[in-house]
Write a structure and sequence with these properties.
- This protein has about 425 residues and is α+β, with helices and mostly antiparallel strands.
- It contains 14 helices and 22 strands.
- Helix 8 runs antiparallel to helix 9.
- It starts with a strand and ends with a helix.
């Protein structure tokens, strides 16, 4: 069969890489892909089309049997609705279901309606009212742009000055455009974050491996928020007891609630968790797609064939699937970012030092890269995702950083502490 993956980041490279391994697959097309998918095996091919209607035409012409949607923006713009209207099989939530991600206000109100544990909040469009609320609540406090902001629309304010500045930048200075014309202000939740993923057909679901992401740009969880600077899986933080709580208190009520409201959620559901010192999970955010960079190490560990799982889920037949099989090892990814990321990433720098081919233990997934005149160049903020397997989290970490040491491009920046918290927890 032929499959189309929509997207051009590290998440899409990892999904396409995994899908192409299936004996059921003849070819995986990636629209628009990146330098890594262009350099990959003959089973992968980039498609330089961004218009959704043209992509649907491409699927008809090429007899594509399944489309997998990677990025949040495409889901929010209704690509799944369009493909379904054309009678094309597509895995991903409709625009209505994806509102769990593209509107923080909708998501918070949904959780309140269905008694799903999350932070207390209020929504504002008026800056003066938002400022008054922050003064009343005090700090620390969290300010979020309502819409999509590429993982950068969240400010955890430790001081009132930071909170007021965040409000002004979103509501008055239009830092995030329409995405920030409404903001959600939440109570600060203490604890440690983890990422929880499920594959759903709208009613039934399968759990994927847990992971932990590193959002801040710099070591020690300092600097601005980013789309993610690294991740590892599984997350030692998520014990069997916490896992069961997430399923019962969050996942089942969410899927049941979405179906009851007439917008069943078919696709990858990402639950960003905050787990407090008592082991109680609460929802930080929902994403209507796989996380990036969590997808990369998760795909490294997944041993099951992903193709029949997604194919059946897209048809509402997920209950026929059995449990997924996982590599017992840990996987960790380190993001190599361009100069100026996340505010103003530079493009066009030459990349050298990449391994000529992937090994069983280390794969470099591409994100912001492009091939131009035979050279591999940077083409975005997060450039490469150096991902490694190890029998321990420490070994996976060591292997990833050993590979990082060989890669070069001007202005390259990366964190040197990806996985440290997990190593400490796992080895203690």
């Amino acid at each position: 069969m032929k499959i189309l993956v929509i997207g051009s980041g590290g998440r899409e490279h990892a999904l396409a890489w995994k899908l192409a391994q299936s004996p059921l697959v003849q070819r995986v097309f990636v629209a628009t892909g990146n330098g890594g998918t262009a350099l990959a095996s003959p089973e992968l091919e980039n498609v330089p089309i961004t218009d959704f209607a043209e992509l649907a035409d491409f699927c008809v012409a090429q007899q594509i049997e399944l489309t997998v949607v990677g990025p949040d923006a495409a889901l929010a713009e209704g690509v799944v609705n369009l493909f379904q209207s054309r009678g094309l099989l597509v895995f991903g939530p409709t625009k209505e279901a994806a509102q769990l991600e593209w509107s923080k206000d909708f998501s918070k109100a949904f959780m309140k309606r269905h008694r799903i544990p999350t932070a207390a909040y209020e929504t504002f469009t008026d800056a003066a009212a938002a400022h008054a609320y922050v003064e009343q609540q005090g700090v620390p406090i969290v300010i979020k742009a309502d819409g999509l902001a590429a993982g950068k629309g969240v400010v955890v304010a430790a001081t009132l000055d930071e909170a007021h500045a965040a409000i002004d930048s979103m509501l008055l200075d239009n830092k995030f455009g329409a995405s920030g014309s409404r903001i959600v202000i939440e109570e600060f939740m203490a604890g440690e974050e983890a990422s929880f993923f499920v594959i759903s057909d709208g009613y039934e679901f399968l759990t994927l491996a847990t992971a932990q992401d590193h959002k801040r740009l710099n070591d020690g969880d300092t600097g601005p928020n980013t789309g993610g600077m690294g991740a590892y899986t599984p997350a030692p933080l998520v014990t069997p007891d916490i896992h069961a709580k997430v399923i019962q208190q969050i996942v089942r009520p969410t899927l049941k609630g979405m179906a009851a409201e007439g917008r069943p959620f078919c696709g990858f559901l990402y639950v960003g968790l905050m787990i407090d010192e008592n082991g109680q999970p609460r929802v930080v955010e929902f994403n209507s797609r796989m996380g990036d960079p969590e997808t990369q190490p998760i795909m490294m560990r997944l041993k099951s064939d992903l193709v029949p799982v997604l194919f059946n889920a897209a048809q509402g037949k997920l209950k026929e699937e059995t449990e997924l099989e996982w590599d017992h090892r840990f996987a960790l990814t380190v993001i190599l970012a361009s100069q100026g990321y996340p505010e103003s990433p530079r493009k066009g720098d030459v990349i050298t030092g990449l391994p000529l081919q992937a090994s069983d233990d280390v794969v470099v997934f591409h994100a912001g890269t492009q091939l131009k005149d035979g050279e591999l160049l940077t083409n975005g903020g997060r450039v490469l995702c150096v991902t490694a397997l190890g029998t321990s989290l420490k070994q996976a970490q060591q292997r990833a950083y050993e590979a990082v040491a060989h890669i070069r491009f001007d202005g390259m920046q990366y964190r040197r502490d990806i996985g440290n918290k997990g190593v400490k927890r796992h080895d203690s």
